[in-house]
Amino acid sequence: MPWESTSIIEDFYFVPPTGAASKSTVTPAPQPAFDASEFEKKATWAKWQKEMQAGYDKAMGLDGSSDLTAVDKAELWRKFATSFSSDNPYSTDDKTLRKQAQERLLYWKNYQPPPPPTPTTADMVFVAGGTFMMGSNEYDNEKPIHKVYVDDFYIGKYEVTQKQWFEIMGSNPSRFKGDNLPVERVSWNDVQEFIRKLNAKTGGNFRLPTEAEREYASRGGSRSAHFKYSGSNNVDNVAWYDNNSGRKTHPVGTKQPNELGLYDMSGNVWEWCSDWYG
Fold it and tell me: Which residues constitute the domain of residue 93?
């Protein structure tokens, strides 16, 4: 029967039957799911890739230097490939650079300098022999003026360039760099070694001109118009010198030639001869 009243005094509570109560459930706080490690890894590899590209660009700059030998350049690319041998999981650029580096390494490892061209009438000028008055009364080391006879000979149309020197010697001692600039800072003995190697490679019989041959050619040989300078009375037309050169050498053949078609016989750089004053 339903309960209606009681004689119990004070507070009292209903207690549900066993098994009738429902337990309250507490939901735990969610754990953070953000993980930046993958992005950090990607950023690290991106930085590595930039360093690899910078290293490649530097190596390419040195690859074109005439001051390094083929052996030096092969070692340069070997070190590059070793330094950046890891595979970048986020890019294929590293594989491309390694492939290009390997190609340069093999190129320089197997490099054989091209044989120097045998001089022809295109770069050697025939000078018909003859008699001329050699020397000058203006300078003590050129006195006295005297008659000299020279036989027919050939002489270079231009001063020897740095490119020609490098192809034979494998080095470039010049202060002012440029393939078409005249080679400078070479001693008489250096030049003799250059000629020895040139003759060995070409089978030629090249030599330095004598002082008499050089002066005769500079004056225009049998075609001489008796100019003050080689090819003109106006020095600026035929020569690079203190007042117009900017204190540096200039590419060969950029001024006008003399009567024989020879360039830079006045100015630019000094030239060696095979003997002292003839």
Answer: 52-109
